[in-house]
Amino acid sequence: MLRYFATRLLTFVPTFIGVTLISFAFIRVLPGDPIIVMAGERGLSEERYAELTRQFGFDRPIYVQFWDYLLGVLQGDLGQSFVTKKPVWDEFFTLFPATLELSFCAMIIAVVLGLPAGVLAAVRRGKLLDRVLMSSALVGYSMPIFWWALLLIIVFSGNLQWTPVSGRIDLIYYFPDPTGFMLYDALASGQQGAFASALRHLVLPAIVLGTIPLAVIARQTRSAMLEVLGEDYIRTARAKGLSPARINGIHALRNALIPVVTVIGLSVGTLLAGAILTETIFSWPGIGKWMVDSIFRRDYPVVQGGLLLIAVMVMVVNLTVDVLYGVINPKIRTR
Amino acid sequence: MSSDATVPRKEGAPERPGLLREFWYYFRENRGAVFGLWIFAAFAFCAAFAPYLVLHDPTEQFREHFLQPPVWQDGGDWLFPLGTDPLGRDIASRLIAGARLSFFVGVVVVAVAASGGILIGLLAGFAPKWLDAIIMRIMDIILAFPSLLLALVLVTILGPSLVNAMIAIAIVLQPHYVRLTRASVLAERQKDYVTAARVVGASRLRLMVVTVLPNCLAPIIVQGALSFSTAILDAAALGFLGMGAQPPTPEWGTMLAEAREFILRAWWVVTLPGLAILVSVLAINLMGDGLRDALDPRLKRS
Question: How many domains does chain A have?
Fold first, then answer.
């Protein structure tokens, strides 16, 4: 058991260093002189250029530069944005709650609809319901979500006028946001209608972002359930005369959940990739939109730092999922 | 699947008879997959003969026909069967030309990602432990980044264009092939036929390419279908974000991006390119499911 955790942790270290190396290299492989890129100023005089070279440490050997960068990263120093002049680290964690809130709601939609859909499809295997559910899941899985978002905007914001097109809350509401989670802050502010407004802003982006995980979870649940339903202990449970609901809901689903939970955990990367598109379309002020905006503004320290932070986050979540998986499923540990 | 690679066989002797027929037998059972295959065939046909199928030059602007609706709506006519875009270009012609681009993206990305990935995966599977560990850590590093984000950053470095988007997507997709190939190689290497081939004196290269590789292909083919659709989706997403194909290229994602501000005025400029993406990706995924069922020996007998 300990050995499993230890080896899994050990592979984390080189991957972390590699990811840091990539983000370190990013600024240096951009077209153009990295110093001019980093300075973000035009028409540098020669003295200023030399000064900047020293300031950024470009006059030192490359491995010393990398070592310094790595030490900085470990202390949370990722440089500062050209545009806002604020530390990248602070910007990231100011915007992160918005992405977390959106992703969390998307995941709730995906799990709450995806699990029952998968179970129903497995139980009614080959029947009409199974085919309808699985065809819909495949459509969802193949969906270009940026188009899906536009379609939902046409219908719900354009024709029906039910939801706003962008942002997190109507501008008439103003309150301090101590947590950064709009739903919670709106509720805590006690202002009439603030929570409803926040919710209306959240619904469409959450649906869009949840679509692909929903389809993946439904498909995964179905196949895991089918595998489990063929097991001997299910037959035993049936022979004992348990009700189908009890067999499917408790005996089968519980064992089918292990692979499903893994899929849910491992879809964090997918979710963040989806957040880039979703946040851009709905002007949702999270890290996905922040990254895209920074790329267009050529705010390279932000791109560099954001890239690193997002990758490290995905790695930590994957590590946690792996470790938890080892705890739930003893078979994997002994491998 | 057992192999007869160690049995001497004449050059150019026919493949095991019935392999293809067996595959088709199982593939045909999945009606969705056959349906997907038909749509994919239509998609490939559009791609191959795009220049002969279009009514107008896809970039030609008809200044009297801005945002003209499709033929079945009031104000539409047969000159522009699916209407025109905000610059007066024929949408039907642009969609057909876009099919060619998307198909091209899929083929090139899968070819590059698969050939590179298979090569590296084979190497990792046969390499000494330390080299294998290094290769796999590098793949872990690439996989740690959300695919679209890494592709975006690569395009930032290379400069936005369709070719660079294709390179970026191929790099992002390639680790999946490495992992798959390596896993299959490690499983196959244990088997008796490989030991037999080694005892007979097959060189390492022969072991890798002739003995082991053919028996690892089934999951790779399935992955090929899946990444074909991912490539189309990601290229469209990059185009949509303005980092893929540049206007006036009739790429589906780029068309969507150009049409965004007109979504509430002219539904067809937004709906049709997205529908084209969805239908082609869906068809390929249907086919991929069928391929998996037909090629995976574990599921065959169930």
Answer: 2
Q: How many CB atoms lie within 10 A of CB A287?
A: 28
Question: Is A103 in the same domain as A212?
Answer: yes
A228 touches chain B (CB under 8 A): no
Name the residue among A144, A272, A312 with its Cβ closest to that of B233.
A144
Residue B210 lies inside a defined structural domain of this protein: yes
Domain that holds residue A17: 1-83+299-335
User: Could you tell me the residue range of the domain that residue B271 belongs to?
Assistant: 45-54+64-299
| pLDDT tens digits, one per residue of A302-323 | 898 999 999 998 888 888 887 8
Taking the CA of residue B170 and the nearest CA in chain A, the distance in Å comes to 16
Residues 137-176, chain A: which have Cβ within 8 Å of B? 138-139, 141-144, 146-148, 150-151, 153-154, 158
- Quick one: DSSP state of residue B250? -
Residues A164 and A288 in one domain: yes
User: Do A236 and A129 share a domain, yes or no?
Assistant: yes
Residues A128, A273: one domain? yes
Contacts 24+ apart (CB under 8 A), B258-267: B258/B85, B258/B86, B259/B85, B259/B86, B260/A150, B262/B67, B262/B86, B263/A150, B263/A153, B263/A154, B263/A158, B264/A154, B264/A158, B265/B67, B266/B67, B266/B69, B266/B83, B266/B86, B267/A154
Q: What is each CA distance from A79 to A188, A213, A310, B52, B128, in whole angstroms?
A: 34, 34, 16, 54, 40
Q: Which chain B residues have a beta carbon less than 8 Å from that of A143?
A: 278
A183 with A96, same domain? yes
Q: Which of A71, A72, A65 is nearest to A87 (CA)?
A: A72
| pLDDT (tens digit per residue) in A8-48 | 788 888 889 999 998 888 888 887 777 776 666 666 777 87
Tokens of B235: 């290229």
Whether the CB-CB separation of B270 and B259 falls below 8 Å is answered with: yes
Interface probe for B, chosen from A150, A216, A282 (most Cβ of B below 10 Å), is A150
Q: Region A4-11: what's the mean pLDDT?
A: 80
Here the CATH number for the domain that contains residue A104 is 1.10.3720.10
Chain B partners within 8 Å of A277 (Cβ): 148, 237, 240-241
A24, A147: one domain: no
Coil, strand, or helix at residue B84?
strand
Residues A208 and A263 in one domain: yes
Residue type, A81: S
DSSP one-letter string for A265-319:
HHTHHHHHHHHHHHHHHHT--SHHHHHHHHHHHT-HHHHHHHHHHHHHHHHHHHH
Nearest to B235 by CA among B168, B144, B143: B168
Contact B138 A11 (CB under 8 A): no
User: Does residue A325 surpass a pLDDT of 50?
Assistant: yes
Cβ neighbours, 10 Å, residue B195: 12
* Interchain CB distance below 8 Å, B157 and A291: no
| Contact across the interface for B137 and A14, Cβ inside 8 Å | yes
Q: Same domain, yes or no, for A121 and A62?
A: no
Does any domain span residue B135? yes
How far is Cα B264 from Cα A153, in angstroms, rounded to an integer?
A: 9
pLDDT at A335: 45
Instruction: Note whether ipTM > 0.90 here.
Output: no
Tell me A165's DSSP state.
S
